[in-house]
Amino acid sequence: MNAESDAIVLGAGAAGLMCAATAGARGKKMLLVDHADEPGKKILISGGGRCNFTNIHTAADRYLSGNPHFAKSALGRYTPQDFLGLVERYGIAWHEKTLGQLFCDGSARQIVDMLVQECAKAGVTMMTDHAATAIEHRDGRFVATIGGREYTAPALVLATGGPSIPKLGATGFAYDVARRFGLSIVHPRPALVPLTLGPDDTLFRSLSGVSAEVEVRWEKVRFREAALFTHRGLSGPAMLQISSYWQHRTPIGVNFLPDAAPDWLIRRKQEQPRTALKRTLASLLPARLADALTERLGLEGDLGNLSDKVLRAAEARLADWSFAPTGTEGFAKAEVTAGGISTDGLSSRTMMATRVPGLYVIGEAVDVTGWLGGYNFQWAWASGKAAGEAI
Ligand code: FDA
């Protein structure tokens, strides 16, 4: 191929595919490059193979970023309904699972195929199995060394994501390039990631495999979803969500009784004084969890033998059970990376670096991180679209 194009997009993931297809459809000559052997590898494994491709409740307040307003412009101009329209034009069947999360009925492969077709229709040249190794800026043009050969263009899009799940080809390449062009990096850290516990948390460690609907809290942030106890610590949607906010050496609170009305235990005592506390708890919680919590509270025996004061204190503890994770399972297990290329140096309208004309950053590489549930793909589509329309 001719080594000159209108723009080079590095990374054929969610954001890069959308960006290349959008600019290509506007008549731009696009080169889309990925070092993996096929595009969209994270899309393929997402949502348990069904791709949770958007969330109908998308709004900027469901994203973490050094600038909470940054995502508004792109998200407002390319909405979940816009992506859904594309999905429907391709006849891909979908369903809403829970909390506004939209999934394919069939397979995530349908989403990748759709985006690859959009790129093909738009005349995008795609090169997989080609790593970008170096980027230079000469005479107003970007020169990318790709697979040992130089390619030039007046615009370069960094869509190589963040370092989460290196075994899927994730790298910190975008950060290295961004630094070279004077953009700053917000410390990248694993997000939507299981939390680990120390040897002292015997209560939780004995519950491996148990799952329960809880409300989890860190400072003022709360999520009401399922928590899963694992042999290493805590996972499940509630814990993954709070992990993105959690800071080391701070406690997390769990409400094990999110549906119980105040003084629930006292009322149960009045109604059924001969019922053991653990059986009472097991009416709302999995039996193994009810057993472990009762043991930890040190309150064996029937409700009738426990004073109202003791029951009220137990209820308060169960509604705000504090624990301090020792850490997370790291980038190897993190669904996304929080932090990344700072939004300070980027235009929220075009995703272009304000001081480096022609350099764009989109998707997970940017310091914008969504909640669990389709928000991260919606950011990838919206930021990719914004850049694709501006190139
Ligand atoms: P993405 O990581 O998708 O793409 C970057 C591309 O750049 C990759 O293809 C990589 O190979 C390539 N690359 C890296 N370095 C390179 C280099 N030097 N040269 C060339 N190419 C290079 N989100 C969601 O909304 N719903 C969901 O259901 C899920 N599920 C999910 C499951 C799992 C297991 C993970 C790990 C993640 C999710 N996510 C998710 C998150 C979602 O996958 C993520 O937010 C997007 O894929 C980010 O899209 P990007 O295009 O920015 O990066």
Automatic annotation (TrEMBL):
UniProt organism field: Sphingosinicella soli
Protein keywords: FAD, Flavoprotein
InterPro entries found in the cross-reference section: BaiN-like, BaiN-like_dom_sf, FAD/NAD-bd_sf, RsdA/BaiN/AoA(So)-like_dom, RsdA/BaiN/AoA(So)_Rossmann
UniProt protein name: Aminoacetone oxidase family FAD-binding enzyme
Residue ranges of every copy of the RsdA/BaiN/AoA(So)-like insert domain listed in the record: 189-336
Domain (RsdA/BaiN/AoA(So)-like Rossmann fold-like) ranges: 6-389
Any matching Pfam family: HI0933_like
Entries under PANTHER family matching the protein: OS12G0638800 PROTEIN
Cofactor dependency: FAD
Residue ranges that the Swiss-Prot or TrEMBL entry lists as coiled coil: none
